[in-house]
Amino acid sequence: MALNNAMTADFLRSAYGGESMAHMRYLIWGDHAEKAGYPNIARLFRGIAYAEWAHAKNHFNVLKNQVGDNTVAAGAVFGNTDIIENLQGAINGELHEVDQMYPVYLETARFQNEKDAERSFHFALEAEKIHANMFKGAQEAAKSGKDIPNQKIYVCPICGYTYMGDNVSDCPVCGAKKEIFKEF
Ligand SMILES: [Fe+2]
Ligand SMILES: [Fe+2]
């Protein structure tokens, strides 16, 4: 389905930019966490980086008929210092998406009857809520000088849903089978 509305298209491009940068930033912060002696927080960063890739991919694909160049402006968190500060940057970025960006983008897509964009924004919003809480938990651990527990991290490649633990089930957001989840 082709996009019919410029405002939704703009929001998709901005979200694509934001997710692309979050993906990269989390890979960098993952390496930082690994070097700082937090291998499980490093895995969390890498797993969530993959989820942000899934969001960027979804937004990009909804824009498939918007052929050509665009300058993309998107919010981005900067800084690569200690692990607690990096996690605060991650929390801030996720909360911006949860409280500001995606609810507005989602309502716009709904208002403009852009179903594919609505689904793409919905998937991202649901995953970012989980990410914010995971990063908060990781920061709590890091503040007491501890890594998070050594649990498996699963990410749905369709919607970016992220789960940490041993009792993973099929995706509660998009319905994908757990067998296709990527494990970190
Ligand atoms: Fe996220
Ligand atoms: Fe999913």
TrEMBL record:
GO terms for molecular function: iron ion binding; NADH peroxidase activity. Keywords: Electron transport, Oxidoreductase, Peroxidase, Transport. Residues 151-184 form the Rubredoxin-like domain. It comes from the Bacteria. Residues 2-146 form the Ferritin-like diiron domain. Its EC number is 1.11.1.1. Its cofactor is Fe(3+). This is Predicted rubrerythrin. It comes from Clostridium ljungdahlii (strain ATCC 55383 / DSM 13528 / PETC). The gene is rbr2.
